[in-house]
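Colleagues,

For the teaching module next term, I've prepared a clean inverse folding example: a structure given as tokens, and then the sequence designed for it. I'd like students to try predicting residues themselves before seeing the answer, so please don't circulate the second half yet.
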């Protein structure tokens, strides 16, 4: 083999060695940030709106940071979705079933319901994987208050649609979003997430999302556009429907993990490693392609451009940013009636306070846990329409003021003439039968007058919100909000249904659309213990009461359950119940129960559905302490665990009915990231450089002039 051939071979090996760890140079997967630099430079209105948007998000995040774990979102926000299917005549139609599956995939990703896939996330990043507390549902009510399935089919007026963000004409700028340019008009952007599915020009790749900063000037263009080939699960590298996950996250204020589009920048999220650009295809940990971090690239993030099999998580910081957007620029979305039924009960407008997120004023209320109302929130914000409650745990202390917010809905858009007032009361919380008509147990906190006057929308808030008293004598209280007609129903004289007196509070709330019930834990600040209990250790504690306010004994049982659609609390620990009186009554009643065990002076609840059976004498009102005991399986991730505790009583023939209940929220922040991987051994790079050096030396030192050699050989 000639020496020159050997050198060429060595050079090839060197190139392979030097490039074997380099990822494919990536491209953005979509066109959301197309021309963004030019827009920020030349469009002063957009630049100012973007700066204002980032300022509001920064302020909201700083406020939440001051509050601490209590700021972790308790409410799950459901966003109504309308999907516009814009296809040419004769095209293979997108099936309704595929639309439903794609929405389910969104919920899987945004609610972190992909536990099977999260196991593939490197441990260093897995600890940061978060539930955004945002979910999506196809709209059930149209803007004209008609029933809908949330899917609108339109015949496309052209073969493919373009996107020209710099264009001054909206119909040429966003062609698919207007009937006049061959697409379909948006539904109101303050009430629906509009998703257009169509054939896009090839250069637009997977699609594009409108930005929150565009809302002030381009509200009729708000939403997400996705190419029909990437809607669903069949595109190469997009087999999990995550093209839409990425686009919807941008609609909610996230950026690409490297910044905006092809520009190098920041995603404004602290816990995602700085990254110079997108990664495409597949990767393996640690992946040091573009990130300036000892952990390498977070290629498993939904906001990178890797294949769907590797895009598996939002970080806690991204979840915080999304929720902050929903409390600021996209806050009106929380008032949408897009997920309500077509019409409420009765003729004319029906006013009600929501007992649960899908309540439309039809009583009795459906879910059993009607004692943490969707229409009541308590937090530290004095803004009238802030329903971003900190959960059932309310922090008190020096310099802290909490406010009670109440949202009143109406189920139809007829004229309003009512003069009802909204009254707010408090009482000691109990799992027992809190009699509404026992006036001695209820104290009025405040009143909002003429809450219906001048309505032009479906929602109204009590304004200003009512300060929560700072001198409450109990660690756990009930809040009741009730609409009362001062003429016909003074002093709580109205019952829930004509002719049927309603005595029990639980029954009253379930059968009266004008009343809602929220339980609160009062927690001292700073908390005495961290919310995240270490395995085997005693966790956070709160208290409530079990009671019997009747004049006869009550055969009762305390039932403990997970809350539906939330992280099961019993998967990761047990509940310890402490009360000397509870223990006495339990032993006197023959130690009845299921799924429980006694440990010293405590009763330990082992599983969902467990109950403690006891006979409660008349007139008793007793405290009990509730504590979470974490076990070795407790994930080291941010999470919210909800415990539902209900008191049931035997109404005859061993038929138990719910008398009351309490929902407890345990908020756990994620732990620390593990140490970064050891620095890569780059011996192959040194070998490659050495081989290249040999080749270069040969090139420099080899004799020149081939004819001279020939002449020499002739001699």
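(Answer key — instructors only)
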């Amino acid at each position: 083999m000639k020496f020159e051939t050997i050198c060429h071979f060595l050079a090839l090996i060197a190139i392979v060695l030097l490039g074997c760890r380099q990822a494919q140079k990536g491209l953005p997967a979509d066109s959301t940030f197309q021309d963004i630099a030019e827009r920020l430079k030349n469009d002063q209105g957009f630049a100012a709106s973007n700066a204002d948007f980032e300022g509001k998000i920064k302020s909201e995040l700083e406020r939440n940071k001051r509050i601490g774990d209590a700021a972790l979102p308790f409410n799950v926000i459901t966003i109504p979705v309308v999907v516009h299917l814009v296809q040419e005549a004769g095209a293979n139609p997108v099936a309704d079933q595929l639309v439903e599956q794609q929405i389910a995939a969104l919920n899987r990703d945004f609610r972190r319901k992909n536990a099977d896939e999260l196991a593939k996330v490197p441990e260093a990043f897995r600890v940061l994987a978060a539930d955004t507390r945002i979910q999506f549902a196809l709209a059930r009510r149209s803007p004209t208050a008609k029933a809908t399935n949330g899917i609108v089919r339109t015949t496309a007026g052209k073969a493919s649609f373009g996107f020209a963000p710099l264009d001054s004409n909206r119909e040429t700028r966003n062609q698919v979003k207007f009937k006049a340019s061959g697409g379909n008009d948006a539904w109101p952007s303050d009430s629906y997430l509009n998703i257009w599915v169509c054939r896009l020009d090839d250069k637009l790749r997977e699609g594009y999302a409108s930005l929150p900063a565009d809302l002030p000037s381009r509200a009729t263009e708000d939403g997400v556009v996705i190419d029909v080939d990437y809607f669903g699960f069949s595109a190469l590298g997009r087999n999990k429907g995550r093209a839409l996950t990425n686009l919807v996250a941008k609609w909610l204020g996230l950026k690409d993990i490297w910044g905006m589009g092809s520009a190098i920048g920041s995603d404004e999220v602290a816990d995602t490693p700085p990254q110079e650009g997108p990664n495409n295809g597949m990767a393996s940990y640690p992946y040091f392609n573009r990130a300036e971090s000892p952990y390498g690239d977070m290629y498993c993030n939904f906001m990178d451009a890797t294949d769907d099999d590797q895009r598996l998580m939002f970080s806690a910081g991204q979840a915080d940013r999304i929720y902050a957007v929903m409390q600021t620029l996209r806050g009106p979305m929380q008032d949408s009636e897009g997920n309500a039924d077509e019409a409420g009960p009765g003729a004319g407008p029906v006013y009600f306070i929501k007992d649960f997120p899908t309540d439309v004023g039809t009583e009795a209320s459906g879910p059993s846990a009607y004692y943490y109302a969707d229409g009541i929130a308590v937090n530290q914000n004095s803004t009238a329409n802030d329903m971003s409650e900190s959960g059932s745990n309310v922090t008190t202390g020096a310099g802290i003021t909490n406010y009670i917010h109440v949202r009143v809905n109406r189920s139809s858009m007829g004229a309003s003439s009512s003069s009802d007032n909204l009254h707010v009361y408090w009482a000691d919380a109990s799992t027992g039968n809190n009699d509404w008509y026992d006036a001695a147990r209820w104290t009025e906190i405040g009143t909002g007058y003429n809450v219906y006057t001048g309505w032009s929308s479906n929602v109204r808030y009590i304004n200003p919100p009512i300060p929560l008293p700072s001198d409450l004598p109990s660690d756990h209280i009930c809040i009741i909000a009730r609409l009362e007609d001062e003429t016909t129903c003074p002093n709580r004289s109205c019952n829930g249904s004509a002719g049927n007196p309603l005595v029990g509070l639980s029954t009253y709330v379930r059968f009266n659309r004008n009343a809602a019930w929220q339980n609160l834990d009062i927690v001292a600040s700073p908390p005495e213990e961290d919310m995240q209990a270490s395995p085997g250790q005693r966790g956070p504690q709160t208290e409530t009461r079990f009671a019997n306010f009747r004049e006869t004994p009550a055969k009762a049982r305390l039932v403990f359950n997970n809350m539906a659609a939330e992280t099961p609390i019993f998967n990761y620990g047990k509940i310890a119940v402490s009360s000397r009186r509870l223990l006495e009554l339990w032993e006197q009643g023959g130690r009845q129960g299921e799924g429980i065990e006694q440990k010293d002076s405590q009763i330990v609840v082992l599983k969902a559905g467990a109950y403690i059976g006891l006979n409660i004498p008349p007139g008793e009102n007793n405290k009990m302490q509730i504590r979470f005991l974490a076990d070795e399986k407790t994930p080291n991730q941010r999470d919210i665990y909800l415990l539902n505790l209900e008191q049931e009583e035997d109404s005859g023939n061993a038929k138990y009915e719910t008398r009351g209940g309490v929902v407890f929220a345990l908020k756990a922040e994620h732990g620390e990231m593990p140490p970064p991987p050891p620095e890569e051994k780059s011996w192959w790079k040194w070998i490659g450089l050495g081989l290249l050096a040999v080749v270069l030396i040969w090139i420099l030192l080899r004799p020149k002039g081939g004819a001279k050699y020939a002449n020499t050989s002739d001699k």
